[in-house]
Amino acid sequence: MRRISIEAPAKINLGLRITGLRPDGFHSLESIFSTVSLTDEITVSLDPRTTGISLICTGIPSPADESNLAWRAAQAFMDKTGIKNRSGISITLHKKIPSPGGLGGGSSDAAAVLLALRKLTGIRINLTPLGETLGSDVPFFLLPGGTALVTGRGEILKPAVVPRFHCILVHSGENIPTPAAFKLWDEHPGDLTEACPISNYTALKFGVWHEGKPFPVRLDNDFLTLLRSRYPGLVRTAEELSRLTVNWGLSGSGPAFYALFRSEAEAKEAEGHLSGKFPWVFRCQSR
Ligand code: C5P
Q1: 182 lines ligand 1 (CB under 6 A)
Q2: CA within 20 to 30 Å of 274's CA: 26, 123, 182, 240, which one?
């Protein structure tokens, strides 16, 4: 039996703008996605003595069935390549990334399973189209490098470089379904036009950082503007983080936030302030 163990990293969004509703019902975005050192741990095995898919989940509870994106990635790979006639796939998933969190955990797991299966089988296949069918964020996690300017539905990726950072992730305690968050934009698209006139993408495009500091000018996230009046936990978290730094933001459609620091000592101090006030606080760094 051949097996591969792989880490599936979380991402944060260094700014996020929703730029339109597409004919396919998805939304176009502009965001910088950047991976951090919080990871799920995945082992994928090919067993020629079995058929089908098996999934064992440990860590943060997650479904060990076909509703799990790791399972669906294995299924998609099987269907596409025909390996189901030759081998079964066993996956163990140790979950450390909260979901839903806006941290891309499920998408990262799916990408990790696809990458592991390609390596195990040696089948030369472009995984991006397969990833797109599984979720808008999956193509990003298939890309090596860990940071990209992301546009389109999430599939147009331009590799980018951000300076190293230390980071605190904070779960605000709210439960925000992503489709509902996007739907709010459909109801209030005009509300955002003044909210974010200059984005960090401008800074990235011209290769400059605000006042020479190693963080983007703006970490604004349109979702926060849309969601804050409905989810008081978001407002409370934003206020707590504002007391510690200006370099904070909501990740994806939440409910997790991040705060960035230049040194580990600053991050540790912030962790001390935040621990115990929120259901989950995690200190990590850029990957
Ligand atoms: O692609 P993914 O499965 O992550 O998307 C979950 C839901 O979020 C979609 O069904 C859609 O309602 C919304 N979405 C969107 N535009 C995107 C990504 C997601 O409207 N770019």
Answers
A1: yes
A2: 182
136 lines ligand 1 (CB under 6 A): yes
Per-residue pLDDT of the chain (287 residues; tens, 9 = 90+): 789 999 999 999 988 989 899 999 999 998 889 999 999 999 999 988 888 999 999 999 999 999 999 999 999 999 999 886 678 999 999 999 999 999 999 999 999 999 999 999 999 999 999 999 999 999 999 999 899 989 999 999 988 878 788 999 999 999 999 999 999 999 876 666 555 444 455 555 545 445 555 555 568 899 999 999 999 999 999 999 999 988 899 999 999 999 998 889 999 999 999 999 999 999 999 98
Cβ of residue 178 lying under 6 Å from some atom of ligand 1: yes
What is the position in ligand 1's atom list of the atom closest to the CA of 106?
A: 4
Residue 33 token pair? 């996605």
In short, whether 155's Cβ falls inside 6 Å of ligand 1 is no
* Residue 277 is a catalytic residue: no
Whether residue 11 lies in the annotated active site: yes
Cα–Cα distances in angstroms (integers) from residue 239 to residues 34, 190, 235, in the given order: 24, 25, 6
Predicted TM-score (pTM) above 0.85? yes
Report how far apart, in Å, the C-alpha atoms of 126 and of each of 46, 64, 99, 129, 228 are: 20, 27, 27, 7, 39
CA atoms within 13 A on the CB side of 67: 3
- How far is it, in rounded angstroms, from Cα 161 to Cα 176? 30
